[in-house]
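Give me the fold.
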Amino acid sequence: MKKIMSIVFLLLSLNYLVFADNGKDNEQKASQSERPTADKNISLQGKVIDLITGEALAGAEICLVGTDIKVFTDLEGNFSIQQISPGNYNLICSLITYHKSLIENLQISEKENTLKIALEEIK
């Protein structure tokens, strides 16, 4: 399973690198139009794990609904979103072979926020 996840992560990383410039343009547009103009020194860090085994999940996609913000977990299941505005967000975490996780009304209000997301494998 780890080999498959590593391959998926590698493919997602390559996709991210190919479209990195477009993502930066989209993030700038989102920061200008969709997000409040308040302090943007806030960050959200977290880890995505398997619900049953507790194993870190590489390549999971983290999206803040209503924005163009999308990041992927690294090989150790960690992710980081930098320079976001305070407010309430809906967050979706997804990974192939796992059920999507929706976190509603995630309140971002401090300088640093930490989140742990456990995904359940589809059987």
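The two ends are 14 Å apart (CA to CA).
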